[in-house]
Amino acid sequence: MNASVFRSTRKRVAVVGVLTGAAALALSNLSPAGATTAHHAPEKKPTVVLVHGAFADSSSWNGVVERLKKDGYPVVAPANPLRGLTSDADYVRSFLKSVKGPVVLAGHSYGGAVISKAAEGESNVEALVYIAAFAPDKGESALELSNKYPGSTLGPTLNTVPFPLPDGGTGNDLYIKADKFHQQFAADVPSRVSDLMAATQRPVAASALEEPATGAAWKTVPSWNLVTTQDLNIPAAAQRFMAQRAHSHTTEIKASHAVTVSRPDAVTRVIEQAARATVGN
């Protein structure tokens, strides 16, 4: 190789070396920022656990579930046995223990009484949300609270069906009569939908509504409350009383007792308010 060719080649190698070194330096300057971004990914949203009440099942939360999932929340609506307040709360508590991370726990109707007991001592429950729900204090029953103020017309609409108990005795299941269901439970829901709800309703044992609460998690856990002003099951006055006593963040809405079906948008907003305020997501 002659001298001129050698010098030209050496220059090209030197230029490539300089460019490579500059690129490496640029990448090294960028990499810490990239690493920082990776280490500061958004925190996972809390899991929303939804507990239905009497005369309904988990499908009554379907519209709420759809909206929560769209907004990125993990959500689950386990079955509430509706057999007895203590046993129902124990069942829900066992489910809560299977959920990893923070929980926003919401209850509708009698489901409110259940979450009030189930959340006791569960450190992952960051917020309680009462949707047209009972929030009893120790010693109070759902039946007592529904009769505390005038306005409930539930009693005359009920049909009683006896069922055998494990100890050989007899219990009583309560159903809302099919021809009364729309007006009593879901007056602002289309009749074609409320007719299906009536046919598939889950009965509640009468003893569950009569059983006194043995705890009240709302005394130590922040709570939110959606009061339904057209409610014929739990009078709005009773709902307000329980919300004020619990120092809940309260929203009122013109809706029937079946607000999870008729106004899932409003229900979702209240649940997400609780999630953002307590968990930050």
From TrEMBL:
<keyword id="KW-0378">Hydrolase</keyword>
<keyword id="KW-0732">Signal</keyword>
<dbReference type="InterPro" id="IPR052897">
    <property type="entry name" value="Sec-Metab_Biosynth_Hydrolase"/>
</dbReference>
<dbReference type="InterPro" id="IPR000073">
    <property type="entry name" value="AB_hydrolase_1"/>
</dbReference>
<dbReference type="Pfam" id="PF12697">
    <property type="entry name" value="Abhydrolase_6"/>
</dbReference>
<dbReference type="InterPro" id="IPR029058">
    <property type="entry name" value="AB_hydrolase_fold"/>
</dbReference>
<feature type="signal peptide">
    <location>
        <begin position="1"/>
        <end position="33"/>
    </location>
</feature>
<keyword id="KW-0614">Plasmid</keyword>
<feature type="domain" description="AB hydrolase-1">
    <location>
        <begin position="48"/>
        <end position="268"/>
    </location>
</feature>
<protein>
    <submittedName>
        <fullName>Alpha/beta hydrolase</fullName>
    </submittedName>
</protein>
<dbReference type="GO" id="GO:0016787">
    <property type="term" value="F:hydrolase activity"/>
</dbReference>
